[in-house]
Write the structure tokens for this entry.
Amino acid sequence: MSFNVEMFTDHGKTLPLAQEDEIFILQRPAISFQCTVDSAKYKANGRMYMTTQRLIFCADKRSHQNDRVFEAFEIPLTTIEKEKFNQPMFGSCNISGDSTRSDNSSIHWKLAFNNGGTGTFLALFLRLLNSKHQGMDMEYVQKQQKAYVDPNDPSVIYVSQPSKA
């Protein structure tokens, strides 16, 4: 988990930079993200990127919270535990979970879907976590050239990888 996500700008849009052997799977706008790090709460609205290695939240607006610049936050998939999909009677559907840091302290996080359409994100998220536990077939992932999505879901599925120009 880190606030220090490598970013680049493409056509006025700030994107996370891919790590080695990382493939972008999905981008989901209209996410309300919050996390608790060392008893300090951070909140922002923005976009969530799902890759084969991590979840990356990019805030719509850079802000200063708890003496820290909050522009982006990454959660390695290997650190996610106690993940839970929540459907409250009132408010947005959300996914929450914990992640363990290298010092064995825990970070609690929550992604709320402000614009409905959780089906695409949730299905891919659960499949990705399951494959992380069982080992991911990267050759299969790279050969996929089609995506089936709900037309009411604002998620963007990547069939080609964004690259820094």
User: Anything to note?
Assistant: The chain has one domain: 7-149. Helices lie at 119-134, 138-143. The mean pLDDT is 84.
